[in-house]
Amino acid sequence: MANIVLLFSLCTGLLFVAASPNDCGGNRFAPACIEPQLVATTADIDDLPNHPEKLLIDVREPSELAATGQIPTSINIPLKTVRTELNLSSEDFEKKYGRKKPTTNDPIIFSCRSGVRAGQAALEADQLGYKNAKKMSIATYEEVLDLPNHPEKLLIDVRNPDELAETGKIPTSINIPLPQLEQGLKLTDDEFKAKYGRDKPGTSTELIFHCKMGGRAQKATDLASSLGFSNARNYKGSWTEWAAKQEK
After folding, report:
1. How far apart are CA 158 and CA 173, in angstroms?
2. Span of the secretion signal (predicted)?
3. Which of 81, 107, 180, 246 is most buried by its number of CB atoms within 10 A?
4. Which H/E stretch holds residue 182?
5. Does domain 141-247 have CATH number 3.40.250.10?
6. Residue ranges of the domains in the chain?
7. Which of 113-117, 197-201, 236-240 has the lowest average pLDDT?
């Protein structure tokens, strides 16, 4: 038990187990160690235009942004240059990016394609003294499209069964309607496998939730996070975006 920390959530009254900082090599943004408050939600991103003091940094390569576009208000600093750019003087940073350089107390949110590079960037910022760094919890269409190549990730459709019967489903997804999600995630490993045909996710498994337009998926993401699933994310575009892009 020396390497295990038990955390109690006053909001939910639930116990969950997380790896200790020693297990994570001091990286509090590691997938098995990250706590929910270090992950930005869809609501955080949607509200950014109302909070110019918060900085959203997309750490993908410029070629990726050219192919997909970028989130409004974000600036692009590729992961490999994050440390260098955050060490720029305030004057040089503002001249280069058109935004004031964040102070070590200002909120910074990092985004990428799947969240991995965002976590690495948040760690870099944390090591430089930026104590309000977060990584974004939104999954993209491109990542969902690539899920057949990543069986270690689990896509959960939280729509009702009658909706799936009408539209079909995204490949590799399993269906757990939102009202049943908490119960489903509390099943034993054997019960989950028998019911859904997939191994039950661990607390560090990458979970992606989707619905029709992203609203219920965000509720599912928040619920899973409250249960200790530290890598839960919302496919914000959900079925609506998937269907539209599949028709092209």
Report:
1. 10
2. 1-19
3. 107
4. helix 181-185
5. yes
6. 36-136, 141-247
7. 113-117
